[in-house]
Amino acid sequence: MARYDFTTHRLFVEAPLQTGARINLPQPAAHYLRNVLRLSDGAELLVFNGRDGEWRAALAPAAKKQTALDVRAQVRPQEAPHDLHYLFAPLKHARLDYMVQKAVEMGAGVLQPVLTQRTQGERLNIERMRANVVEAAEQCGILAVPDVVAPVKLAALLAAWPAERMLVFCDEGADVQDPVAALSACPRPTALSVLIGPEGGFDDTERAALLLLPQVARISLGPRILRADTAAVAALTLVQAVWGDWRDGA
Ligand code: SAH
After folding, report:
1. Tag placement on the chain: N or C end, fewer CB within 10 Å?
2. What are the φ and ψ backbone dihedral angles of 221, each rounded to 5 degrees?
3. For ligand 1, mutation pick of 226, 229, 233, 239 (most atoms within 8 Å of CB)
4. Which residues pair with 22 in a beta bridge?
């Protein structure tokens, strides 16, 4: 069970956090607190910026249409991001929003879009992905806000692959075999990436190139073809349960 306060609203802010700081909020956050949550002066909430841990703050009295927060005290120290990279072929709009949010909730530390032969929707809106990351971070209580990095072509990604990094390659073409057993048979990796392909799947040359990596676990996610956003949750569940923070709070 999480040992943090999940009943108080949590808000991501850009500003540095320290005792006594007053933070002027940008209009969307001000609107959210005043008009959506209907918080009044003095209402308490939790704030984090991805660098300074989590802090208790209170809504300052309204002044000149500016909404501000008074930062009171730190309640949790900053935590380090997880070294779990989620690699995915971008999807279109709503499914991509969902997939990004779920990857964050499932503990991904870096979100890496990968362009494959059959990737669709290549005009990626990184800002929109970042907004989804922040929303998920606010919701699920993490303090290290995952990075969304620039898209990279699969071939370039593989060419620069670090030898010590393990890849869990979710292949819709793999024979159905117990994925828990397959992962458990590998030593627990120190650096880990999980790859989910596009709705069109991988082609055979991509498959062959992926299997040449020094540390790769090719797994099946069962006898049904999952949508990529479902596959994301399924795959991250498996790695968190076998090697990750579902197992020992690591
Ligand atoms: N169009 C493809 C399916 C692609 S599904 C086909 O019909 O074969 C999108 C991605 O989700 C896949 O590339 C894979 O990474 C993952 N995925 C979906 N179902 C899977 C399964 N049963 N096993 C392993 N990976 C799966």
Report:
1. N
2. -105, 35
3. 226
4. 70
**Last residue within a domain, chosen from 76, 106, 133:** 76
Count of domains for the chain? 2
pLDDT tens-digit readout, 213-238 = 999 999 999 999 999 999 999 999 99
**Within a domain: 135:** yes
Contact predicate 167/206, CB 8 Å: no
Q: Which residues line ligand 1 (CB under 6 A)?
A: 170-172, 196-197, 199-202, 220-222, 224-226, 228, 231
Same domain, 64 and 95: no
Same domain, 90 and 181: yes
Give me the half-sphere count of Cα atoms (radius 13 Å) on the Cβ side of residue 181: 3
Residues 6+ apart with CB under 8 A from 19: 71, 72, 73, 74
Sign of the C-alpha dihedral computed for residues 105, 107, 111 and 115 taken in this order: negative
Tell how far the Cα of 2 is from the centroid of ligand 1, in angstroms.
32
**pLDDT (tens digit, 9 = 90+) per residue, 3-55?**
667 788 999 999 999 999 999 999 999 999 999 999 999 999 999 999 999 99
Same domain, 60 and 183: no
Backbone phi and psi for residue 36, each to the nearest 5 degrees, phi listed first: -90, -55
**Domain extent for 17:** 10-76
Spatial separation of the C-alpha atoms in residues 142 and 139, rounded to whole Å: 8
Exposure of 139 in the CB half-sphere (CA atoms within 13 A):
13
The upper half-sphere exposure of residue 205, i.e. CA atoms within 13 Å in the direction of its Cβ, equals 5
* Ligand 1 centre distance from Cα of residue 52 (Å): 39
Domain final residue pick, 76, 104, 123: 76
70 and 161 assigned to the same domain:
no
